[in-house]
């Protein structure tokens, strides 16, 4: 791995106020629109899993006690798995707002797994990354007992969940958990953060508490990846400028997938298109499964 210049990161020349504009998508949306989006997350997730076959509340990590939900399984058959990691800048939301795609995927033959993780500041970002990787390990080790195919795992996530998706795509962690290097067969991060050094200078860092060196060590765009799984890097047309830049840079860095700029969507509603099986993002996700 090449030595990383800690002071050379995208947007470093911007003022703190300019960085906040680029990365504070909640402020960009405004309180009324933000609250409306969050209400949609909750309502759509509740509707998606109402009556859907599944096994919610399974403990996947003994150390933290964190749990995940399994949705859209079929008795007597192993289904490919979409592991969806929620966003919230590592400090908000949960699995309960994050299963809105489960019914649409179930109808297309794909199961959904939605893990919780301990939110900052109760957990460091290193610990959050460990937990998300542990959830993937749980699917690989125990999935068969819950109708999940451990050899067909696709990981995706939105915003901070896009960052955490990236941290499952890179190498260097699978062996320690007894996993094959290709445990994640494909990935679809939405509006992700892949070089998180800019976060050290925006409001989020008051909760996450990173310095530049730790941020670099937790940046998927700066970490080794001898095997580059197929990926679709999705971002909204009306996203924050920082997220648009991050997605473009990571797609070029990853060099094993497509950049998908979704028209007429913002940072919060782009991922909700996964609830519509005929949307462009759903077709892209199902296209990844078709390659497995």
UniProtKB/TrEMBL annotation:
InterPro entries: AB_hydrolase_fold, BD-FAE-like_dom, GDXG_lipolytic_enzyme. It comes from Actinomadura fibrosa. The lineage of its organism: Bacteria, Bacillati, Actinomycetota, Actinomycetes, Streptosporangiales. Pfam families: BD-FAE (PF20434). Residues 78-170 form the BD-FAE-like domain. Keywords: Hydrolase. This is Alpha/beta hydrolase. It comes from the Bacteria. GO terms for molecular function: hydrolase activity.
């Amino acid at each position: 791995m090449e030595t990383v210049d800690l002071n050379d990161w995208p947007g470093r020349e911007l003022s703190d106020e300019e960085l906040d504009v680029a990365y504070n998508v909640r402020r960009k949306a405004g309180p009324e629109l933000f609250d409306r989006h969050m209400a949609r997350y909750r309502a759509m997730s509740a509707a998606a899993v109402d009556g859907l076959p599944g096994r919610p509340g399974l403990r996947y990590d003994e150390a933290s006690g964190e749990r995940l939900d399994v949705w859209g399984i079929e008795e007597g058959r192993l289904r490919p798995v979409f592991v969806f990691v929620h966003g919230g800048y590592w400090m908000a939301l949960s699995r309960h707002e994050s299963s809105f795609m489960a019914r649409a995927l179930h109808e297309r033959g794909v199961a959904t797994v939605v893990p919780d993780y301990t939110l900052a500041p109760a957990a460091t970002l290193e610990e959050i990354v460990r937990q998300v990787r542990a959830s993937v390990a749980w699917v690989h080790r125990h999935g068969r007992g819950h109708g999940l195919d451990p050899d067909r795992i696709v990981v995706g996530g939105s915003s901070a969940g896009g960052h955490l998706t990236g941290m499952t795509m890179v190498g260097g962690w699978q062996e320690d958990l007894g996993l094959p290097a290709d445990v994640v067969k494909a990935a679809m991060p939405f509006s992700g953060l892949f070089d998180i050094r800019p976060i050290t200078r925006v409001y989020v860092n008051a909760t996450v508490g990173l310095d530049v060196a730790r941020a670099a060590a937790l940046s998927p765009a700066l970490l080794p990846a001898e095997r580059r799984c197929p990926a679709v890097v999705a971002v909204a047309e009306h996203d924050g400028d920082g997220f648009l830049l991050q997605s473009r840079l990571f797609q070029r860095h990853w060099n094993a997938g497509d950049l998908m700029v979704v028209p007429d969507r913002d940072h919060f509603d782009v991922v909700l298109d996964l609830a519509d099986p005929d949307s462009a993002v759903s077709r892209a996700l199902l296209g990844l499964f078709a390659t497995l």
